[in-house]
Task: structure prediction
Amino acid sequence: MDWQYFQPQFEYKDSLNFYRSAWSGHFFFAYDLVRNLKPARIVELGTDYGHSFFSMAQAVVDGKIDAEMNAVDSWEGDKHARFYDSEVYESVQKVVSKHFAELKINLHKKYFADAVNDFDDNSIDLLHIDGLHTYEAVKDDFDTWLPKMSKSGVIMLHDISQKKKDFGVYKLWEEIKAKYATMEFEHSNGLGIVFMDEQVGKTLQPLNDFWQVYYQKEWFSDRITKKDKDIEDLQATIQWQKNHMIKLNKEIDNFRDIAVDSQKQAEDANARLNAYTSEMKYFPVRAALKLKRLLKKNKAKS
Ligand SMILES: C[S@@+](CC[C@H](N)C(=O)[O-])C[C@H]1O[C@@H](n2cnc3c(N)ncnc32)[C@H](O)[C@@H]1O
Result:
């Protein structure tokens, strides 16, 4: 296989929490794998929100690959991933209808053991195993689905370098490596690649060291671009808040001026009222004196 490198734009990025996935370090590799392999049938065991699945779907769209894509998941969760509600499956359906409606995508909402009967032997070209990560579970997934692989098929296994709790993919990986042509990444919990056709594996194996660096670099530079964009957004928000503060301060000054004017008007009105009240106080005395003078005048006349 003459491996080509692509520069994908993941168009569905804003429709799910793109960077919040243990799988994020492998998006660029999975994309290139699909573009190069051009698989007719892709199956994923363990899809969750679809981080890995949609990175492959993007490659199918961009490469105009005639592929049938199958996501198999109970969409209930498991003890390693977490247990979750129907929101996750609904989110996957929304991303499919918004970004990948033109693809042949089947969502098999069932257990792996039941879904295996939906596929003929030798019919899967790319299988991604990412269900429960105990040794027993992943070995069962691998052994059960192996007969379904086509002669030139490729299997990806996630979490081959994760050793916490009872994660056991790394143990199975040691067994697989002894039997098949493989390649592997250590970052993002590790991704193992198993080639059913040993020759294909052998032609790609010399690229291993370069891939380690290249695909980590693609992942980091994408994250840095995202961080730069976040910083720009934050700077724009801070500038908007500064402008808004200036506007609010101006309004406060205006209100303060209005309050000072009102206070002055109230004081004036109060002074006028006091003057009027004191004038009114002497009015009866003055009126009585005036009346007395008038009476006296009239009396003098008569
Ligand atoms: C680690 S998550 C998958 C992560 C996903 N590949 C990504 O890119 O984010 C594992 C998923 O496998 C599913 N799962 C585990 N065991 C299963 C089984 N036996 N049958 C069906 N689904 C299973 C869980 O529901 C969970 O969504």
Remarks:
- The chain has a mean pLDDT of 92.
- The beta strands are 41-45, 68-73, 77-78, 82-83, 104-109, 124-129, 149-158, 181-185, 191-195.
- Residues 25 and 187 are 7 Å apart (CA to CA).
- The longest strand covers residues 149-158.
